[in-house]
Amino acid sequence: MIPYTVNIKLAARTLTGTVHLQNKPAVDWGWQGLIAQGCHSSILIIDPKTSQTIQVLERHKANVVKVKWSRENYYHSLSSPYSLRLASADSSGKIIVWDVVSGTAHCEIQEHAKPIQDMDWLWAQDVSRDLLLAVHPPNYIVLWNGDTGTKLWKKSYAENILSFSFDPFDPSNLALLTSEGIVFITDFSHAKPPGSAGKKVYIASPHASPAHSKPVAATPAPTGAKKALNKVKVLITNEKPSAEAVTLNDCLQLSYLPSKRNHMLLLYPREILILDLELSQTVGVVAIERSGVPFIQVVPCGQRDALYCLHENGCITLRVCRSTSSSPDESEQSVQELVYDLRSQCDAIRVTKTVRPYRIVICPVNENSAALVVSDGRVMLWELKSHSIKTSANSLSPLYSPVSFCGTPLGQNQKRIPDLSLNTMIAEPSRSSGQQEVQLKFLLTSLLSGLPLPPFALRMCPPLTTKNINHYQPLLAVGTSNGSILVYNLTSGLLHKELSVHSCEVRGIEWVSLTSFLSFATSAPNNLGLVRNELQHVDLPTGRCFAFRGERGNDEPAIEMIKVSHLKQYLVVVFRDRPLELWDVRTGTLLREMAKNFPTVTALEWSPSHNLKSLKRKQLAAREAMARQTVSDAEQSSVESSVISLLQDAESKAELSQAISAREHFVFTDTDGQVYHITVEGNAVKDGARIPPDGSMGSIACIAWKGDTLVLGDVDGNLNFWDLKARLSRGIPTHRGWVKKIRFAPGKGNQKLLVMYTDGAEVWDTKEVQMVSSLRVGRNVSYRIMDIDWCTSDKVVLASDDGCVRVLEMAMKSASYRMDEQDLTDPVWCPYLLLPRAAITLKAFLLLQPWSDTFTMDIMQVYVDIKSVLMDPELNLLQRCLLVSRLFGDESDMQFWTVAAHYLQSFAHARQLNSHLDICNDVLCESSFFQRFQLERVHLQEVKRSSYEHTKKCADQLLLLGQTDRAVQLLLETSADNPSYYCDSLKACLVTTITSSGPSQSTIKLVATNMIANGKLAEGVQLLCLIDKAADACRYLQTYGEWNRAAWLAKVRLNPAESSDVLKRWAEHLCSPQVNQKSKAILVLLSLGCFHKVGEMLHSMRQFDRAALFIEACLKYGVMELIGAAFTEYARLLRSLGLKEGAVLWASRAGGAGEELLEELFKAEGAEEQPGLEEEQENLQSTE
């Protein structure tokens, strides 16, 4: 049997409880796979897969109001490794950027002393990965370098800024939600502050009308989506609305939609509005019926056009956008607006005064799990699961599951991971055969709960000794205000047991063995000042509780304290205005109730000295004498005497535990400060010596006794140290007010003393009589101390009024711990916790492994289903790369491999693929799909238009898209009293009469070029599109810096060859030093099939592993030739990581370029038989 070992080393840690209202927005789920959550002034780092708190960061003095993980949108290598970086901001305006693994701060930033309204990292990380934008109240935005803490620029706006949102498709766009409306910034850059004040758009509230200018709660809700839509028609205006037409701007949230470009959502308590920003017009509404539960928050998804909504009852709903592509048999006008169908919802929670849902966060990598933070400190993790059904009975359009896995069609026998991510669960709406219809459900997969509301009563179990080392567990009992007792195991920091023991607040706990304790609680006093006392004995292994004092306890003075003697034989119960009671703990009997004239006790402590040893010696001597009489001399010699003594020993021990009652003493003080000494033996109680009061001390509040040292503390903050051996006493004034509690540290000869005051705590060394460390509210910490105890000989545990219990070193500095030094109960899969080199090695190992016997490194922490898929020989290289980038939460890798996998297959099969890239990739999508999407969008804009401006914009778009007939209809709608009436009518005539004759074409071209030269770029481009000169139009747009517009036009109007030229020019522009968006350029080139160029670029950007694997995949699909240098460099990288077999494999495939490296490798190996093995691996690799 394996011996049970005890881990006595306890890590400093924080057990957290309820969440403060200011912490409400402070939660974030990062690409790294971890959740950060603010709890008062601390930050918890939670691993959602194993639901453990793996780090608590403590440095803020005020409540944390925002936390944000840094983005992982860059290429990771040894020089730019996988690291856990988190920015947190508090209500005093301080921002800290953390290195989460070591628990230290990279930098601290302070601009003003007001709470930070919002902050986020810049997502375009080609230039720098360290830029952090923050809103400093009331109206400043500041760009910081999050690594050094330097301010890059600062800009102020006219209104108060509430929050902001970056455009996920264009890093130069930013939208600010202000107290009056929205400000759109289009020239955001890290180099300089935005030049203009931005375009202001005012929001007239959806319920705006003079009748309802009461606060939001009183506003009657629209009964249905139709009513909401009518009101929304006039939602967004460029003029400031009149005062009575605007209620307080009750917009709760604004975010860009990451699933399609130029769309934004606005959240109101009773509806979500989807805006098309090209038109500034509402194109969709999700409204709640009158009886429905209002929204608190919405998280839009990127992988599918879907919304996770949080409601006030804690229910999370998933709404997926209905397909807008109308089927041929329906009428043209079928699609009136974007409709988000409710597809799944989870159970609500029970909402009370203290229990409210705060926020949800969604896993950004997979977008199929949500974490809900509740105000009582719970974090609930909901996962979305899909299950296939025959045909749906409901009226909603069916959802289908995709037929591909990780971007590639599934092989015959290929394993797949069910519910890997949102886009592998539901397909983009399209009618392809062989798809399975699915339904979605939420499943609660784990729950983290915190401590209840303070105050707490703490007591650590008896200390570790040589006798109990084999079965010792460091248990901490925490009594709570609702009468329950929580027992925590401090090795893991996890809740060991929760016991509902009392019906009122627990006042104190005393352990009577390693597995049982006594606790007492007192109810609120009645009008006579009497209470109900509850004193319970609890046995931990069984959970059995019984009332220790039997029937007693009703209508009597309150219990002040209970004290158990050192040998756990006796118990003293001290009451407020009544003499004390003395109990025998072992038998549960009352030994003595003191007489009426017994002095009032102010403080009491048992003495550590007792006569147990001498009693044992006497008993053993008596035993031996008896044994000698009964055993004759002959027998004596034959039986080993040691056996007898062993038997006697065992016997005596068994009897000792029952029979012997050792003599123990306790001392107490009365109201005058006189010290009494009382001896207890069996049921005999003797009064001992009395020591007169010390004149320098006030009323004694507490006593502690260990060895030959006795310490008294009084209400004025004086400590009196008595050395009983030398008969000396020494008084020291601490000037800290009432001494609430004093406790000696455990351990032989350890004379440290922990003292608690109303404003903090101190540790004293009683040998030297000097203070070791101190903690004071307002000076070192912001919380007040409620209770204290020692948990080991060098660590203390403190309960504080912010609802936390902290285990601290003796220095009492609250510090974060190193994550790699922790003992976690469950292993955590998070490559970011590894050293940079180890993380890169692990990645190489997962990517490249021809699963041969030569590799022995085991990766047990990867979850079982993922492991079986990784080892599946059917998994091809592209799928493996995409899956590993998901496992690592590597945003830039995922983006690259998604686009690469799609276009490699597309070009290999001569563009015969049924599937297309999701629209969230915008201009990277196929032209035909992109064109269809834009036409649907204009159709929707047309249905929604509500002013001449809108109609004009629609007509312009239709002309660019080549839909001339429809454009003419719109142009002819202009009313006669409109100043543009004449102009529009002529334009309509022009569009209908355009012929392809030479003269008319050249005239129009001349006019267009003149217009463009004179600053009318949009009009000139339209004319060029009319005469099918869209390629020239794109060139003009690019010359005038309208690169995105040019790419859009090329996608919707040009043939593949012309479009390719335009996009290649754009890619070159993106690579230029002043733009520096090479990662975007690579994606554009991938979509054009310029694979060789991509391979060269990756190699020149020193992204060796990505380059080599990409070229390898291209070779498999036969779409490009070998670039040997990239393979050689990857082999060098693997050699530096110590993966020799891999290095040889890639070097041998690099052709001539790798020969030199191969020689080096073989010299190093000094082995000749290696090539055979390499060929074997090569074969394995090719079969894979």
TrEMBL record:
Residues 22-317 form the WDR11 first beta-propeller domain. GO terms for cellular component: axoneme; cytoplasmic vesicle; Golgi apparatus; nucleus. Residues 945-1115 form the WDR11 TPR domain. It is found in: Cytoplasm, Cytoskeleton, Cilium axoneme; Cytoplasm, Cytoskeleton, Cilium basal body; Cytoplasmic vesicle; Golgi apparatus, trans-Golgi network. Residues 467-812 form the WDR11 second beta-propeller domain. The keyword Phosphoprotein applies. GO terms for biological process: animal organ development; cilium assembly. SMART domains: WD40. Keywords: Cell projection, Cytoplasm, Cytoplasmic vesicle, Cytoskeleton, Golgi apparatus, Nucleus, Phosphoprotein, Repeat, WD repeat. This is WD repeat-containing protein 11. It comes from Denticeps clupeoides (denticle herring). The lineage of its organism: Eukaryota, Metazoa, Chordata, Craniata, Vertebrata.
